Amino acid sequence: MTVGLNLNDKKAVVEEVSAKVATAQTIVVAEYRGIQVSHLTQLRAKARSQGVYLRVLKNTLARRSVEGTQFAGLADSMTGPLIYSISDDAVAAAKVLSDFAKTNDKLVLKAGNYAGKNLDVAGVNALASIPSREVLIAMLMGVMQAPVSGFARGLAALAAKKESEGAAA
Fold first, then answer.
1. Rounded to an integer, what distance in angstroms lies between the CA atom of residue 124 and that of residue 93?
2. N or C: which end of the chain has fewer CB within 10 A?
3. Is the pLDDT score of 6 beyond 80?
4. What DSSP letter does each residue of 79-136 carry, written as one string?
């Protein structure tokens, strides 16, 4: 026999999730029907390491949590046994679920919402394919360093050429 949540428990869940939603940039939902507990545990560990709030929620409570927020449009997709991935980072919530879905066919991406824009499965996968903020910063720094390091190599080559000309003369 399972015991349902009492009213105070439901209010607490809605408050907790609403607090996460208030600071979130992205929410992604996926069906998790038939996933082994050990796989869910791995998924939760991966989500934690990426700073993603991952939770199985009653859909009615999730709908209440997004009511009146930029994610309200996602309420229509909240049917069936869902796991909710919520992140302050624009890409992390999508990446965690999308990467896991690639290796586990029991996790089926359903929908997402990024900054108030509803996403279909293709949209969630596209969002998940964007490199993380740290990778993008590293790429930008590489682009910014390229002219300086090229100039330094050019100066070194010029100095070496002058040296070899001076030794030959």
1. 9
2. N
3. yes
4. -SSEEEEEESSTTHHHHHHHHHHHH-TT-EEEEEEETTEEE-HHHHHHHHTSPPHHHH
Q: What is the DSSP letter of 141?
A: H
Phi, then psi, of 36 in degrees rounded to 5: -65, 150
On the CB side of 158, how many CA atoms lie within 13 Å of its CA? 6
Q: Does residue 112 contact residue 124 with C-beta atoms inside 8 Å?
A: yes
pTM for this prediction: 0.73
The model's pLDDT over 51-107, given as tens digits with 9 standing for 90+, comes to 999 999 999 999 999 999 999 999 999 998 999 999 998 899 999 999 999 998 889
Strands 108-114 vs 26-31: parallel, antiparallel or unpaired? antiparallel
